[in-house]
Amino acid sequence: MIDLAFDIRFQQGQFTLEVADRSRVNVLGLFGPSGAGKTTLLEAIAGIRKPSRGEIVLGDTTLFSADKGIHVAPRDRRIGYVPQDALLFPHMSVRGNLLFGATSSALDLQTVAGMLEIAPLLSRRVQGLSGGERQRIALGRALMTHPALLLMDEPLAAVDRERRERILPYLLRIRGELQVPLVYVTHDAEELSQIADRVLVIGDGRVLRAGAPAEVIDRR
Amino acid sequence: MPDNALGIAAFSALMALVATLLALPPGVVLGWLFAHKSFPGRSVLETAAMLPLVMPPVATGLILLRLLGRRSPIGQALDAAGLEVIFTWKAVVIAMAVMSVPIVLLTAKAGFQQVNPRFEQMAATLGAGPVRIFLTVSLPLAGRSVLAAAFLGFARALGEFGATIMIAGGIPGETETLSVAIYRLTEVGREDDAMGLMLLSLLLAFGASFASNHVLRRQKT
After folding, report:
1. How many CA atoms lie within 13 A of B145 on its CB side?
2. Roughly what angle, to the nearest 10 degrees, separates helices B73-80 and B57-68?
3. Shortest CB distance from B137 goes to which of A46, A89, A141?
4. From CA B170, how far away is CA A133, in angstroms rounded?
5. DSSP notation for A142-190
6. Residue A104 to residues A108, A109, A117, A145, A146: CA-CA distances in angstroms?
7. Pairing mode, if any, of strands A198-203 and A206-211?
8. Residue A75: which of B118, B124, B137 has the nearest Cβ?
9. Which chain B residues are Cβ-neighbours of A73 within 8 angstroms?
10. Which of B38, B114, B120, B125 to mutate to test the interface with A (most CBs of A within 10 A)?
11. Which residues of A are less than 8 Å from B140 in CB distance?
């Protein structure tokens, strides 16, 4: 279960992200239109972007605090990040990508490859893989680090509806079997209702509504 | 062409090769730092690293002579260790390496700037520290530019004259490179011999430059 609390402000040019929330759920969904600030929030949680003020706390660990001068480096956060474009390392094989962040306490390669049905791809280069395959490999790569939290940025945006129906069960297995809490970004209401326990609706850099998927999505 | 033309060319190429190997680590690491990292004093360090490119080579040679000469602390330490540098082949290598670092740095920096910084961010979220990110992500992704930097650094080393003559002299059979030999032969009126060495020099420089361009062209396609 996630125990994630954040109250941050991030400014870049004309865009301001000012969001606050505390969630204790298995899957927190971030819902909203493009440019709302969902990815910026994910990157702040991952440690890739540094907010100008505020605090991010995961469980008992303060990941960022402007007042206390804390900014835990991304490599020390134990937070897996699956970006929208997968960002597989192009100079490595699928196996190389999966093993890049593998820790001794993590799941073994065969388990992850089996669960995500990517075992036949292990020796292939990443060039020429389909959008769905790339997403599953990026997901596997993040899982191999044994993350305390997994951030997923529109993992199904690059795949068609048929493949979406096939990938969604993998995500549900991560939630169910591996007990890895997720922060899940999408602008597909149907996806959210299937996977998220709680949803933050974000627009123009602010949290507009928060609650169970049925409550906040019905009010759209 | 003088009798020992091939010997001079081989000596020059060997010295340039060793100098390139010496220039690559600082040139590539600095190129990476200047491409992606911000830190206090960066502008001053970047400017200082470029000085051998913009200063008169003989002035750089004079600095090296003062740094490595027997009256300097470094020179005395080398002397105490039994290492003779000035007016030996080691001085040739040092002069060539110092003059090659800026060109290696500039080419490598351009390569690292083409690498999407999000790959490095992704590697960090996967638990990699800066050294591992550099060695396993940035360097392989900028690999062709680094190879091109090595070829250009080799070509620059091969053409080195001013700094070399200051700290290595031009002792025939010991420290005489193609550039120095061309100058010496022209000075004593053996212009035909000098032209022969010039052709060898041209061939080596063309080959290195062509290889560099070829590597970079393949990167773009």
Report:
1. 24
2. 60
3. A89
4. 62
5. HHTT--SEEEEESTTTTS-HHHHHHHHHHHHHHHHTS---EEEEES-HH
6. 8, 11, 22, 9, 9
7. antiparallel
8. B124
9. 124
10. B125
11. 91
Region of A40 (left: φ > 0; alpha: ψ -120 to 50; beta: rest) is: alpha
Which pLDDT tens digit goes with each residue over B124-157? 999 999 999 999 999 999 999 999 999 999 999 9
What is the length of chain A? Answer: 220
Exposure string (b/e) for B145-173, b if CB count within 10 Å is 16 or more? bbbbbbbbbbbbbbbbbbbbbbbbbbeee
Residue entry with tokens 């306490």: A105
Question: Residue for token digits 């893989």?
Answer: A129
Residues in chain A within 8 Å Cβ distance of B137: 89
Concatenated DSSP letters of A45-65: HHTSS--SEEEEEETTEEEEE
CA pair distance B180, B168, nearest whole angstrom: 10
Name the A residues in 156-215 with CB < 8 Å from any B CB.
none
Q: Tell me the per-residue pLDDT of A93-132, one tens digit each, with 9 for 90 and over.
A: 999 999 999 887 657 888 888 888 899 999 999 998 988 8
Pairing verdict, β A79-82 and A53-58: unpaired
Classify A39 as helix, strand or coil. Answer: helix
pTM equals 0.84
Sort strands A198-203 and A27-31 into parallel, antiparallel or unpaired: parallel
